Every structure is written in C-alpha cells, then in structure tokens.
Amino acid sequence: MITLILGTSEGKKILSLLNEFTEDIAVTTATNYGGDLLKKYRYKILNTKPLDIEDLKLFLIDNKSTILVDASHPYAQVVTENAIKVCKELKIEYIRYERPSVSEGYKDDIVSVRNYDELNIKLLDVKGTILNTTGSNNIGKFMNMNLDNRIIHRVLPSTKVMEKCYELGVKTEDVIAIKGPISYQLNLAFIDEYNAKAIVLKDSGVEGGTEEKIKAAIDRKLKIFMLERTNPVYTNSFYEVEKLVEYIKLYLLGTK
C-alpha cells in the first residue's frame, strides 16, 4: 500500500494521478479540514488526526505500507523528520514532494530569519502594524514577543482556529479569517485596510500564495520578513507532482 502524508493543496493532484492506476492508498492529514478536501478521491484509509512518531510507525505497519510519500507542508519539520526515521527503521521507500521555493527570486526584497527569536529582534525596529501570515500555530510566539505593535493575524476560518485565537488573547478585530491562497489584489486590500508596515510570511511556494504576498508587500513598500525553510537531506525528492507519480508507478512495477 502507498501511504500519503498530505499537508498541501498538491495532495489533491497527487491523489488524482495515483487514482489513474491504483486506489491501494492510505492517507493521513493533520486535520478534519484537510480530510474534507479529499472526499472525491479514492483511497482505502483516511486518518485526520496528527500522528506522532509511534503513531506513524503503527499506521504504516497496520496498513502494510511499502511506500511513504511525504507531501507535508514545507515547514512541517517534525513530521518530515519522523517520516524519514520511521521509513529507515521499517525499510519503507521514503519519497519527498517538496514545493519549489519562491524566495530566491526576491532576495533583495526580503529579510530572511532563521527562527522566531531572530524575528523578534528584527521586529523591534518596525513602527506600525505587522501582518502575520505564518498561521495559527505560531500566534503564541508572536504574543510572547511583547511588541508594542498591533499585530494582525491571518488564519484559516475554522472554529478550532478561532477558539485558539480567543484562548491566546487575540482580539477579534486583529484576526483575518480567510482560506488561502488569496490574490495580489486582496493582499493589497488587507495591507491598505490595516495600514500595515511589515509582513511576516513563510516560503510556502507559488501554490501557497507566497508570491502574491511578496508582490503586494513590495508595491506597498512594507518590510518583508520571511522565515527560512529547514533543509533536511532527502535521499529521494521531487518538485513536480507528475514526476513523483511516474516514479511511484515505476517502483510498483519493479523497475525502480
């Protein structure tokens, strides 16, 4: 069986192409929302809860997996590290789908930071509103920075996320709840509406809407802070879904 760890929109395309020749697939996502997006595709197992390293190991064993495709988000570092470790232990073929980066084309426009401690230091020089687009899982890090700036958090419009914002003490008027990716024009509108002077983002690739954020921020002369991706060493990785699926097909046929 093929196991897919899905955490990006490309998961739908991966499933669609795999379904052209197999439905012997087990899928795991971190949320119910992620699972809901996959309802029209064919697979035998769907898990919608986060798996720690032991959970993942059992999931692979129970489903007799021979291939694991890690298409988790570029910043889901722990998920990827766990997947690599478990596959090595169980002698399962590990394949990484990695979204292409967009940061290389904007090196002169962005300030890259390695972590939130470094980001905190950089944000001390910002005067005015900061737009945080790094996701709800990182709001607590911003709240702990004790900045005087108003921080607007762009998050997914789910009940769970809104409850998290409330629990962390985020004011309702400081939340933009919208499903991305969003257009260049809408990014401009949010920047203008909140009179933002800086934006914090991740390099989530073209598919994640990163380029539209950067272009809008450049045109409004915002300071742009980007959290760097970690760079694990992959033994087998792909940047194109079609090539990934072709490799899987050949592997199943025994020619890889």
TrEMBL record:
<keyword id="KW-0169">Cobalamin biosynthesis</keyword>
<dbReference type="GO" id="GO:0009236">
    <property type="term" value="P:cobalamin biosynthetic process"/>
</dbReference>
<keyword id="KW-0560">Oxidoreductase</keyword>
<comment type="pathway">
    <text>Cofactor biosynthesis; adenosylcobalamin biosynthesis.</text>
</comment>
<dbReference type="InterPro" id="IPR003723">
    <property type="entry name" value="Precorrin-6x_reduct"/>
</dbReference>
<protein>
    <submittedName>
        <fullName>Cobalt-precorrin-6A/precorrin-6x reductase</fullName>
    </submittedName>
</protein>
<dbReference type="Pfam" id="PF02571">
    <property type="entry name" value="CbiJ"/>
</dbReference>
<dbReference type="GO" id="GO:0016994">
    <property type="term" value="F:precorrin-6A reductase activity"/>
</dbReference>
